[in-house]
User: Fold this.
Amino acid sequence: MSGTAKDGIVETIKTVIYALLIAGVFRTLFYQPFWIPSGSMKDTLLIGDFLFVNKMAYGYSKYSCPFAICPISGRIFASEPERGDVVVFRHPANGSDFIKRLVGLPGDTVQMKDGILWLNGQPVPQEDAGMFEEIKEPQGSQRNIPQCANDPIGIGGQCLKERRTETLPNGVSHDVLNIRNGAADNTPVYTVPEDHYFFLGDNRDNSQDSRFALPNGVGYLPSEYLIGRADRIMFSSAGRSLFFFWTWRGDRFFKAVE
Assistant:
């Protein structure tokens, strides 16, 4: 092999290494890609939505790095999340990344009564927003079957859920879905500890969140497990793969997360 050819191979390897390092720094410090795998945040987020998580929003901890390898104790450059933020965080028990809505801040009391969220002793108002409709069929790469308020219905049938618009005390409004009257619609009063947060899924009857203790639920989440804020959907596919272009949801491209 000639010296010129060897030099070309070396330069190619160096270019690849530099590109990987730049991508790693970008992912660690600025934005992390996240693909929605489940229906716990419908109808705000649908299975197959692809977004970038703003990692600058809350500062950095060791969980800001892949495999939690950042040599950071606590959080640095920390900023407090706001009630109503849609947040990606590291699950304390299983190490996977979760996405839920922040409803309870440190010191808050949180309770569910008959499916209504209560914060600090006051009900959070809801207004009727019609029905959420989707086809009952396998969704996403995991082929999850949606739960329906009008079950039992067969595959291919119209799956319905009651939708209401909830407005948090700071004015943030978002839709929540109701499938059934379940045990998690009525809870004890939770008091959020200092430096912890309380999360709910918008699809309230299909979400493992802070209403449920570890290891299956989230419980009170320590602040060091925060990764970032979901701000905007970049791309969305209703199929098993993003390469199935006929399943792309064009109306969700660059859609703000509210």
